[in-house]
Fold these 4 entries.
Entry 1:
Amino acid sequence: MFKDIYIETERLILKPYCMEDIDDLYKVYSDEKVMSYIPEGVMSFQWVKDLIEWMVEDCYENNTPDNIDKFGVSVVDKKKNKVIGWCGLGSLDCKPEDVELFYGLSSEYWGQGLATEAAMAMLHYGFDIIGLKRIIAVVKSDNIASKKVIEKLGMKFKNILNVDDPNYSGYDGELYYALTKDEYNENNVL
Ligand SMILES: CC(C)(COP(=O)(O)OP(=O)(O)OC[C@H]1O[C@@H](n2cnc3c(N)ncnc32)[C@H](O)[C@@H]1OP(=O)(O)O)[C@@H](O)C(=O)NCCC(=O)NCCS
């Protein structure tokens, strides 16, 4: 479901992953600066290929509003018509009942408000198109840029994650933020 996403913002387009974009996506997923905050770390070309295949053939086919596995999309720089990052929604691995917002941008594009622009569009899609009632975000306490993005989106800090499951120990100690649809609507009429 919702595999035909196409959102235009002022400077960006959000569109589905496709194999034609593998070189640009690989550039982002193999960027050490970007991946240092992502549990998977720097990814190989084959890993990115598998990721695109999984997203297109499995996730896009099987996601439903009540059961989103992962819904990742490409973030395109409109002017250059080039994929510069990813953004998406998906079940939080350590707490699958939650739908998490995630994003990452090629480091040469940082500091221009682009992640906030992409993430805001994804929140709109999650609340207004998919019909989600609540979206969360998690972030490592030293990831200042991402914390800033989350706060600029109006998400509210709730607690620090305490994760006992050794399979998901990477989440332990991360900051947990949430936004309900009502709060999102209130923020957007102000
Ligand atoms: C997080 C990330 C997507 C932010 O991208 P971005 O396009 O630079 O984000 P924005 O420009 O929209 O906002 C970043 C904000 O953080 C601020 N910021 C960035 N680094 C900072 C620092 N070291 N100290 C203080 N503020 C900082 C920026 O000034 C900006 O705030 P402002 O709009 O008030 O000036 C990007 O850094 C990234 O891809 N990081 C690696 C992947 C990642 O961490 N993903 C999220 C996992 S939770």
Note: The mean pLDDT is 95.
Entry 2:
Amino acid sequence: MEIYKGYLFDIYHSEQKIYLWIKSDSGELKLFVDEYFPIIYANASPTILKKLVKRFYELDALAEIPTFTEKRLFYQNKTIPVLKLVISKPQLLPKITNKLFNLYGKYDIYHSDIEITTGYMVEKNIYPLAYIRIEYEVSKNQINHIKNIKSLTDINELDYDVPELKAISLYLEKSHRHPFQENTLIAETSQKTYRIPTKNGINLIQNLNEIFKNHNPDIVLSSFGDQVIFPYLFKTAQENHLTTEFDRDKTSLIRRSIQTQGTSFNTYGTIVFRAPSYPLFGRWHIDSRNSFVYKEAELIGIIELSRISRLPIQKMARASTGKALTYIEVDVALRMNYLVPWQKSALESEKTALQLLNADKGGLVFQADIQNGFVLENVAQLDFSQMYPSIMVTHNISPETINCLCCEGEPNIENVPSLGYRICAKRKGIVSEALAHIVQRRNHYKEQKKNNHPNSMNIQSKQSSLKWMLVTSFGYLGYRNAKFGKLESHEAVTAFGREKLITAKEVSEEYNYNVVHGITDSIFIQKKDKSPISREDLTMLCLEIEKRTKIKMEIEGIYSWLCFPPSTQDEKLPVANRYMGCFINGQFKGRGIITRRKDFPKLIREAQNHMIQWMCQFKTIKEMQLKENEIIDIFYSYDQKLVTGNLNWKDLIIQKSTSKEPEDYTVDAPSTIAVKDLMDMGVRVQAGEKIKYIVVNQKSDKKGERYLTVERMEKKDNKTNNTSLHERSNSASINNEISTKSNHKTQKYDRRYYRNLLVKSFKEIWIGISSFKNFEILISEERFLPFCLEKNQNYCKTINTTNSIFIA
Ligand SMILES: [Zn+2]
């Protein structure tokens, strides 16, 4: 028997075999093989069970003779006899699960939809990047068979080591929508950048093979690798019978079906696009464009979630934070000996964190009824720390604990405020149990960040990945098709939330503050005499709120000034979660305003940001108002760029998500025209994918002249630059040159349209302060003075608390 130690780097399965890549301390990677027979449970009438067993025998899929065993039902908290089936062909499980879905209701089946590799890791108590000790034997054909496997590290560790990993980046020079052969593939390592022509597929693969051999990367970080690059590479390799170096694994039988079509699905009215998936075997392929967690929390965020959920890294990269959360809950449920319920949504699309969150936040809002937005001075913002998850932990809220059957009729048990639902007194809920650990982890990282941890970037990513998971936890709780979801438990959380926010408001008022704005888990308060607020005062207040609500209350900051822009739909109401202000230390905070929005062009966002920076140098509104002409000058400097065209057209690009399949568009919205134009170029944009275009002439009668997609522009550029491109290919600023100078004239764009956007961005942040109300006049053709400064203008509108409105 031989022994090997190292980190569990990659894990996947093929048929009943589990493959594990272990990276030793010296950096060596070794492949091991194990066998795994997952266990599922069934409960049905004897006739149906007989049929089921017969079917499994026919498929030769049972490793043992089925036996009855006692297990506990999750919702009912009742022990029942179930048939235990040990499956010898785990590869059949997805198919079986699919078939069973159609028979749903005729019998109950448990544990059949747990990912095979995760099931294996649960059984062995190991997890991705665990430090592992393996006892193994080498077979005649040089395969390392695992005899014993054990983790030497703990899954709950907070400050774990990550082995050193080598990475390579793969991306395309131009938009991924151009025909692949007309693009250039860039491969970037820490030492070198390769520009590989794509015209000849065979040469391309040979070039890449060479690079992979030389650098032997652990991680392939791509942009559009799942959607475009790898499908093309694998297809070309298959057609030409070429071997590739992309996978490290050359022994196991891996079959890939080549797929370029992604899936689009509708979640609560938003269309989401997900590209197909191209994991590698023995390396990590992470497509930054196809990974929510990567976008929000980078690689370390993926590692953090992958470890605690036992989802392999490449699966985690492509999954939602909700899926990771579900697996953490499964882990808890298995330890509690529950029959893990079947996930009805398994065959539906996956939901991303935000959509579930936005579906129904159900939080309490109180806000002042002020026209034209409003501006305040000396305001403090207090936030309940991780309010919803903390409520779930503190009040034991979980789908099985709300209105549980085991406590029916029992006196003196906790009820949900205003709803009166029972909360189980006999069981610790699995959602509350799972979240308790996640909340604890996040608090630990937040504490490290506060204490200036040397690796603050990593800490921030870990913290942020957990934040997203906690955000999802609330949505999943109420989502009836989630594995652990029930509407009443979701309602219970919001009911507690409202109660706590009202308590916070009452305590603040007792302490001589007015609540000027409140939403879900934060309140904005001002002293009744509007005088400056000190941190010491707030600490006292927070402790009192915490005492009464059992949820930690934190000081987000004290603002010198804070402004709530008016709603663009209804100018009388500020939007609940849109505000900006400057803390007393000069730091800016903004939510929901244009400079933070990706669907506005860069130039407009920059302009607003510039104006905000200017505003942040002042401590009072009065000071700002006295120098109003300066901010107007900033506005004009950007307007000047738009008028003269002295700009880079790329800064005018608008990015939008498409909401339909190309055929389904009927109205001539910008995205319709852009999508149809791409169709003409032979590019099919699926619903939920992003498109980028500039507005050329919005009012034009000819639809084709209204908007121009980036792809169309790049194509034009190609034509005009074909002759000269050669000499320049080494220049670093190649993109800029092509876009602005080489055409000898700037790309045409709709000046009026962009100038209007500029006005909008100015108005949003300045209307509560300005001495004039007609912002449109700033870009009017008649250039008379648009405003006159009124002396002693009453900018600080008084907020009358009786004026506040409550929206439940
Ligand atoms: Zn109970």
Note: Residues 487-510 form the longest helix (24 residues).
Entry 3:
Amino acid sequence: MSADQTESIDELRACLLNESGKVPLAHRFRALFLLKSLGRDGDNEAIDVIGAGFRDDSALLKHELAYVLGQTKNMHAVPTLRGVLQDVAEDPMVRHEAAEALGALGDVDSLELLTDYFHNDPLEVIRQTCELAIERIKWENSKAAKEETLQESAFSSIDPAPPMPSEIAQVQKLQEILVDQAVPLFERYRAMFRLRDLGTPDAVDALITGFDDPSALFRHEIAYVFGQLSDPRSAPALIKVLQNGAEEGMVRHEAAEALGSIATDEVMPVLQGFLNDKERVVRESAIVALDMYEYERSEEAEYAALPATA
Ligand SMILES: [Fe+2]
Ligand SMILES: [Fe+2]
């Protein structure tokens, strides 16, 4: 399947939902990318097909569904995302992505729900995600958002926090904010995305220091940013994270995907070593990353141009 063909919504549904029971995971991800662009163009049926995927048992796939819904700017996704956040039996990584997606959609009407989970969810990863989503929605509707000058980002993703204003460009200063536990999480994320947008070798080194953070959510976002940057300079730090069996699956998964985006001849054999990892989300990340690599090597340009995943 390639991105330029015109498949019907029924074909995309059959592929995403694995109706035959024989669709490889990577093909399902590709169907999701196609559904995403339909959903972004206002096709609510595509949003519903993505929503039907939450009945699956792969946390990796489901967290990607939530991420994609947040990137569509289509408010038809809101009820589904709220339901996922409220489903406490759901995998925390999937619930996290649903809360983040509500923030990405800037859904003011979800503030009450997000505030509830920010105060009361037993899991730190959910509380912190809700904190960020609340702040993002407030920021988007603030005076500051209209007055700040932000550097135009090379990345098309809607992020959990905007970068810091462009006049803040000193890597050392940003690194201090990044790791300062006394600074609100939203501001530390803003420093993170500012460092990403600077993207210099110094900025990459500064971001690596974020892997020492006590918050798994924070560490997974550092790995996500490295996936976007795709700078081989971050590869040794990402490999260390992936190899650390004591690290959270959510963080190791993001490190695997980032290595898949870096895709040098050195990192791909490393990923092969994780195809049988004890953690399902890590195994599946390695499978999808290696598949993407194959596509890029076979010069399927349209697939290589697909945006970064969550
Ligand atoms: Fe995430
Ligand atoms: Fe992810």
Note: The chain has a mean pLDDT of 93.
Entry 4:
Amino acid sequence: MTQTVLEVRGLTRRFGAFKAVDGVDLDIAEGEIHALIGPNGAGKTTCFNLLTGSLPASSGTIRLRGETISGLGMDRIAQRGLVRSYQISSIFPDFTALNNVRFALQQGRRTNFDFWRSELSLTGLNDAAMGLLDDLGLSDWAEVRAGDLPYGRKRALEIATTLALDPQVLLLDEPTSGMGREDIGRVTDLIRKVAAGRTVVMVEHNLPVVKGLCERVTVLARGQVIARGTYDEVAGDPRVVEAYLGKAHA
Ligand SMILES: Nc1ncnc2c1ncn2[C@@H]1O[C@H](COP(=O)(O)OP(=O)(O)OP(=O)(O)O)[C@@H](O)[C@H]1O
Ligand SMILES: [Mg+2]
């Protein structure tokens, strides 16, 4: 039987009188790649901020492997294995790709000491960083300044620095945004690869990517879940069509 790794009930976040996230329930199964989709302003990023603890919820509960994590700070949630991909802005542009990953590994050693204590004592920081770069197709770019990397490689580096924390549940917010077709293909392959042995929840506007990658999809609109199921199930749901196109086209 599949285990639920992340269980969210009644998650709500108000900004003044406005509910950006309004009573959201989510069940994320161990090992799946789950998409969170919906039109602009639906509340997807706010949901991620609530899940990672970077924003406190107004109400609702979040359980990670049965333990309540709502109310814990970002660091403690990351320690328990739920990590969101770093944003490009958190990559140090003047560091090489290799040094960015080395730095992230040092951070990861602090947040996830047991894992990296054994790993790093075997291989050393440098080898571990090179291994991660290699996994992400970045070994040829190791000595390049992060700020000089092409856009798609920067996103791959962002994922590498996140993987350095060895998350069990990885949240990716629009991993393919702003990419050309070639980079999208590469990042899609990469997500499939890093998803082995982990759970991935991703916000993604590119629907062919969602269709190709994600086992299950949750659709948000105006802060509420309006559909859930496989891609084909939700794509055929009239409420989803209406949310994307507006009433006039439904
Ligand atoms: N700090 C904030 N203060 C006030 N309103 C906010 C704040 N953060 C988000 N919102 C509002 O909450 C709603 C949901 O925003 P959110 O960024 O979560 O949407 P999203 O689904 O990620 O959209 P997009 O697809 O455009 O990234 C929007 O109406 C947004 O303006
Ligand atoms: Mg967003």
Note: The two ends are 38 Å apart (CA to CA).
